[in-house]
Amino acid sequence: MKREHIVIVSAIFLIVVFILGASFYKKQQSEKLGFMAKENTSTFVREHSLTLGSADAKVYLVEFFDPACETCRAFYPFIKKMMAANPGKIKLVMRYAPFHEGADYVVKMLEAARIQGKYWETLEVMYKYQPLWASHHNPQSQLLWRVLPEAGLDLEQLEKDINSPAIDQLIKQDLADAQALNVKKTPGFIVNGKPLQDFGYNQLIELVEAEIKANY
Known about the structure:
By secondary structure, this protein is α+β, with helices and mostly antiparallel strands. The protein has nine helices and five strands.
């Protein structure tokens, strides 16, 4: 066999090995997380986890997010639309993965707002003004104080609640769970224990619709 042919055959062989290896890895990850969903549900949904949707929903959409993440901001209205299109069938579970430097402080703001019953209002304001306080992946949380009044918050109380040790512990737990579930980027989506392997809007819709079809 000519040398050129040997090189081509070797290259094809390596590509096939790579594709098969990647496929095997994804399958293993999916099976592993699916098992954990049955045996260790708390890894996906902690008691402190904020949820949105019906208590009877059979599809759990777990989102690990960072409020400073531009892609998380882009997906937020998309997820709300998807939930509205499937009333009562999807429960959104909010988990934290503040990977940007300083984003953990923004999470503390969010949790302190939750104490005032203003979680979703505050998240909306944070995303609305994200280009102001987190431009180019560079969170400057002090700029958020200018716009937080729009969420109807008691800022003086918020500043006190931010220092709660319980919030620190909550963030540590979520980060530990993110690591256990192999979430390395945000947003990280897991649907009924199955991770979104190929990232994208359509892929997320397909995964959610597959679980709806399987459970309803």
